[in-house]
Amino acid sequence: SCCIREQLDHGIRYLDLRVSHPSADVRESSKDFRLIHALYGPKMQEVFREILDFLTTNTKEVILLDMNHLYDFNMESYNLLQMEAVNILGKELFCPLTHPDSISLDFMWENGYR
């Protein structure tokens, strides 16, 4: 099991991230989101920073983040996670909602999406 940066360095570009928003008695703050796979993993802020570090040094790479397993989430925690991702990675890296048939690597590169 490699850290996120090691996985990216080894060629992984699709990350299936299962994220939990721990209960208030466990988390350090309302912004404490964790990777989870039976046990709590690293904080999402750390994951986003590793991804940003990789993208900063690899300017043509595109990474797909699949976060469809969200545990103990409500609308507020969903919005907080989204804000954390944007605050750390930067809004300009995110591809806006676009029809999948319109997205290609050329489209992503031309528009600066990563």
Protein model, in words:
By secondary structure, the protein is α+β, with helices and mostly antiparallel strands. The protein has one domain: TIM Barrel, CATH 3.20.20.190. Helices cover 37% and strands 21% of the residues. It has four helices and four strands. A four-stranded mixed beta sheet has the order 3-2-1-4. Strand 2 (34-37) and strand 3 (39-43) form a beta hairpin. The longest helix has 15 residues, at 75-89. It is globular. The two termini are 24 Å apart. The model has no long low-confidence stretch (mean pLDDT 90).
Summarize the structure.
InterPro entries: PI-PLC_domain, PLC-like_Pdiesterase_TIM-brl. The chain has helices spanning 4-9, 44-57, 75-89, 105-111; strands at residues 14-20, 34-37, 39-43, 64-71. The chain is of the alpha+beta class.
Task: Give the mean pLDDT.
Answer: 90
Number of strands: 4
Please give the alpha-carbon distance between the first and last residues.
Answer: 24 Å
Unreliable parts: none
- Overall shape: it is globular
CATH class wording: Alpha Beta
Total count of helical runs of at least 4 residues: 4
Rg calc: 15 Å
CATH topology: TIM Barrel
Structural category: alpha+beta
Instruction: Give the SSE string.
Output: HEEEHEHH
Biggest beta sheet attributes: 4 strands, mixed
Q: Into how many domains do the coordinates divide?
A: 1
In spatial order, strands of the major sheet run: 3-2-1-4
Strand content: 15-25%
Fraction in helix:
25-40%
